[in-house]
């Protein structure tokens, strides 16, 4: 599976098995194993180490504590369509690990911005002070 121009994942690292789909669907669901259960071990994969670290740091419910991606595709009627859907979901998840997050640089507000903020607070305070009962 091609992730980028220079990076690909061999299909031998992706384990797929056909299982019966859950839910309503009548006789077809009960007889045919059309759902796909996909497993991909991040640690044992041929991905670069920095990509592995970013993938493991993702807060995604499909990634287990052991670093295994588990995807279940059962929305389509045919096994081939579910297989394609599972691979597409895996590809989009792995592409998230390719994105290098931009480093945050700490900044300070300017003096003018601080002054404007304090002026706004003063105006708001004056407005609120006028809401009280008038003195007699």
TrEMBL record:
<dbReference type="GO" id="GO:0043022">
    <property type="term" value="F:ribosome binding"/>
</dbReference>
<feature type="domain" description="Prokaryotic-type class I peptide chain release factors">
    <location>
        <begin position="20"/>
        <end position="36"/>
    </location>
</feature>
<dbReference type="InterPro" id="IPR045853">
    <property type="entry name" value="Pep_chain_release_fac_I_sf"/>
</dbReference>
<dbReference type="Pfam" id="PF00472">
    <property type="entry name" value="RF-1"/>
</dbReference>
<dbReference type="GO" id="GO:0072344">
    <property type="term" value="P:rescue of stalled ribosome"/>
</dbReference>
<dbReference type="GO" id="GO:0003747">
    <property type="term" value="F:translation release factor activity"/>
</dbReference>
<dbReference type="InterPro" id="IPR000352">
    <property type="entry name" value="Pep_chain_release_fac_I"/>
</dbReference>
<protein>
    <submittedName>
        <fullName>Aminoacyl-tRNA hydrolase</fullName>
        <ecNumber>3.1.1.29</ecNumber>
    </submittedName>
</protein>
<keyword id="KW-0378">Hydrolase</keyword>
<comment type="similarity">
    <text>Belongs to the prokaryotic/mitochondrial release factor family.</text>
</comment>
<dbReference type="GO" id="GO:0004045">
    <property type="term" value="F:peptidyl-tRNA hydrolase activity"/>
</dbReference>
<feature type="compositionally biased region" description="Basic residues">
    <location>
        <begin position="102"/>
        <end position="136"/>
    </location>
</feature>
<feature type="region of interest" description="Disordered">
    <location>
        <begin position="101"/>
        <end position="136"/>
    </location>
</feature>
């Amino acid at each position: 599976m091609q992730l980028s121009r220079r990076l690909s994942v061999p299909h031998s690292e992706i384990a797929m098995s056909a299982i019966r789909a859950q839910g309503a669907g009548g006789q077809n669901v009960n007889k045919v194993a059309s759902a796909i259960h996909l497993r991909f071990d991040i640690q044992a994969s041929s991905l670069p180490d920095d990509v592995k670290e970013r993938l493991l740091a993702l807060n995604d419910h499909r990634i287990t504590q052991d670093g295994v991606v588990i995807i279940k595709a059962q929305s389509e009627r045919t096994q081939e369509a579910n297989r394609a859907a599972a691979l597409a979901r895996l590809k989009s998840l792995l592409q998230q690990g390719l994105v290098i997050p931009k480093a945050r640089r700490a900044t300070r507000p300017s003096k003018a911005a601080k002054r404007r903020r304090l002026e706004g607070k003063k105006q708001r305070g004056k407005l609120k002070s006028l809401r009280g009962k008038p003195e007699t």
